[in-house]
Write a structure and sequence with these properties.
This protein is mainly alpha-helical and about 90 residues long. It has one domain: lambda repressor-like DNA-binding domains (434 Repressor (Amino-terminal Domain), Orthogonal Bundle), CATH 1.10.260. Helix 1 packs across helix 3 and helix 2 packs across helix 3.
Length: about 90
């Protein structure tokens, strides 16, 4: 993934964009952070760290599946977004 200045995006920039996308999906689902954490059986702080782009260890397969089920997201789209791939999905 490239920035407008034709430089590759940093991992941190990718994480921030993924977090913004994830937060948007949560709000589109009509869930608060607490509700989403409860439904996905994840700690609020963990979900919050993903949304803020500060997930130190990435996203595990189990977490990905829980989040996708909770927000009704296609798993491949989720994984592609987490990896920073450009998509035409909303």
């Amino acid at each position: 993934m490239m920035r407008r200045d034709n430089q590759p995006k940093t991992d941190h920039e990718i994480d921030i964009e993924f977090g913004q996308w994830l937060r948007d999906r949560r709000t589109r689902s009509g869930l608060t952070l607490e509700q989403a954490a409860e439904r996905s059986k994840m700690p609020v702080e963990r979900l919050k760290s993903l949304e803020l782009g500060y997930a130190q260890r990435g996203v595990t397969q189990q977490e990905s599946e829980k989040i996708c089920a909770t927000f009704k997201i296609n798993l491949q789209e989720f994984l592609d977004r987490a990896a920073g791939k450009e998509l035409n999905h909303s």
